[in-house]
User: Fold Methyltransferase type 11 domain-containing protein from Acer yangbiense.
Amino acid sequence: MGIKANTVTTKREWRQIYAIYGMEQWQTLLFLLCHAIFFSLSSVVFLFYFDPICAFFNSFLSLGAAARFAAGFSGAVLGISAVCLFFAAGNFFYSALPLHYDMAQRMVGSVNDWSTVKTALDIGCGRGILLNAVATQLKKTGSSGRVVGLDRSKRTTLSTLRTANMEGVQEYVTCREGDVRSLPFGDNYFDVVVSGVFFHTVGKEYGPRTVEAAAERMRVLGEMVRVLKPDGVGVVWDLMHVPEYVQRLQDLKMEDIRVSERVTAFMVSSHIVTFRKPSQHIAGPGEVRLDWRC
Ligand SMILES: C[S@@+](CC[C@H](N)C(=O)[O-])C[C@H]1O[C@@H](n2cnc3c(N)ncnc32)[C@H](O)[C@@H]1O
Assistant:
């Protein structure tokens, strides 16, 4: 199996990706677009009705020049805000679909040989962009392996099975409802465990920067390592806390820990972290005991 240094990605048009996976968190996109349109229209109103607006400002400030400055400044701020909001909406859309698909290809591309993989797991599988990318690799390489997608939402797991069907990889995919904080699998079970834009959401009910949330993330990373077979490969793509993950993986004595170059997604820096669980894991006389749990 092992980790590959250079990865090859398969390109696909965003319309095809949208047709299968739709848009997760479309409310955020709608929110950004509505505000962008509102700010644009407001700045156009400032442009066309500059003199009446100056007169309106003047009725408060009673200073001609200051009123013109206030009106001009407000119009400029509205215009700049509209541009920023359109940019944010574009980046959100790009990150949620074409980039997400591309990153899933990169992630699966970092595993050396899928033909020898028998069991794989995607934690927090969502609508299945990454899960189906894994299943596609299993299918392509003629592996007899299967991938399990774990998500806490029953509705999500049902729609994930639909997307697997649309991708033609349904026989390689099983979906399971469960909580990643305590993975419902035995120790040393999977050859590969992957996770995309998920870890930073763990423990967010405590607030993203709290000690409790960090402890939950570390616990889930420990769970990921626990269910991984010795010599198994872990691949995590996330938007935040990457140094924290690397530190935890080092503490857990993982090998070949690699961090990809920075990729801007959802307006923040993201990285793919890959690692391998060492083959020596059974504690015996003179051997090192590695405990994957917190
Ligand atoms: C952003 S989506 C992940 C997208 C997915 N990895 C992909 O590549 O398409 C996050 C998913 O994690 C699931 N989730 C959140 N907390 C969870 C938990 N504690 N246990 C299991 N799944 C969880 C959510 O239901 C959601 O579907």
